[in-house]
Design a protein that fits this description.
This protein is α/β, with parallel strands linked by helices and 300 residues long. It has two domains: 174 residues, no CATH class; 91 residues, Diaminopimelate Epimerase, Chain A, domain 1 (Roll). Helices cover 37% and strands 21% of the residues. The strands form two sheets. A seven-stranded mixed sheet has the order 10-11-9-8-7-6-12. A hairpin with a 2-residue loop joins strand 6 and strand 7. It starts with 16 loop residues before the first strand and ends with a strand. The relative contact order is 0.11.
């Protein structure tokens, strides 16, 4: 896969800054890995979650620098601030709500590119390494991130990968596994995946009814790494949406939304200040609203 874009990476880029989707996101980190390898580690890397940057004052210095934004985006005003000061700006993302928000944005110093049928990691590897084969690690990460599951071995591989630290050197080593290392990695992942699914099934046994903006769905309290598999289980029961919530270290209530194929959960997420994909979105809210959520009714 090659991206037909008007700009290219350059190892002589001025003080490159790579901002990517963090928050323990394998897709965002695999995207950043592509840049890390291209620049041989000689760049500044910043993992971000949505809401971390509220104004341009929350950003590192961007003036005169090459800015790469991977598997992530900013509101129009903040992106405009970056574009007006950067020597180069490249944004590669695949989140539908972000693409809609930035419709019509004119990039002065580079390109803002969205492809909803590709993962953020695939886009980054196609940009930074267009002549190299896509690593298996990226194929498997994309398989789950897009919730396609076209590779039978994805679940086991990713269960093992999820136990690894988010360190560029380690993920690069995993990309270079020989056949024996790969086989051992898969065996370890198979056991982990079996236990993970058992725990998810237990969490899904007693969901609570939720009416969000007048629409009925199901919800359950669960850590973020259970959201996709739990959401898939619960959506099969209600045929609309499932909401999984937890409280982070800042006291924010983090809500993940998953929906059945015929239901677009983006409007629900956007009404609460979030966004994402049609079948996988998210938003945050202050803990003061947790009582409403637990009461089974939440309105924007």
């Amino acid at each position: 896969m090659k991206l037909q874009l008007p700009v290219f990476p350059d190892r002589n880029d001025p003080r490159p800054l790579v901002m990517y989707h963090g928050n323990q996101c394998p897709d965002g980190f695999a995207a950043a890995l592509a840049a890390w390898l291209y620049f041989d580690g000689h760049a500044e890397f910043l993992a971000l979650d949505h809401g971390d940057v509220q104004s341009p004052h929350d950003l590192p210095e961007v003036a005169g620098r090459a800015i790469y934004i991977l598997d992530f985006s900013f509101p129009r005003d903040i992106l405009g601030h970056i574009d007006s000061r950067a020597a180069k700006l490249v944004l590669l993302d695949h989140h539908q709500s972000a693409a809609e928000t930035l419709t019509g944005f004119t990039c002065r110093s580079g390109v803002v590119h969205f492809e909803m049928k590709s993962s953020g990691a695939r886009l980054a590897w196609a940009f930074f390494h267009p002549d190299q084969a896509l690593p298996d690690l990226v194929r498997y990460v994309e398989d789950r991130d897009l919730w396609v599951w076209q590779y039978p071995e994805s679940a086991s591989y990713l269960a093992a990968l999820d136990m690894e630290p988010f360190e560029f050197e380690r993920w690069h080593a995993i990309c270079r596994f020989d056949a024996a290392d790969h086989a051992a990695f898969m065996v370890r992942g198979q056991a982990m995946d079996a236990k993970f699914n058992q725990l998810a099934q237990q969490l899904a046994r007693h969901p609570q009814a939720l009416r969000l903006n007048g629409i009925d769905g199901l919800m359950v309290n669960a850590p973020g790494f259970f959201h996709s598999v739990l959401g898939d289980m619960l959506c099969r029961q209600c045929n609309t949406f499932a909401l999984m919530w937890s409280v982070d270290h800042k006291g924010q209530v983090k809500c993940g939304l998953r929906s059945s194929s015929g239901f677009n959960c983006i409007p629900l997420a956007q009404s609460m200040g979030g966004g994402g994909h049609a079948q996988a979105s998210a938003f945050r809210m202050p803990y003061q609203r947790l009582a409403e959520l637990l009461g089974g009714r939440l309105d924007a």
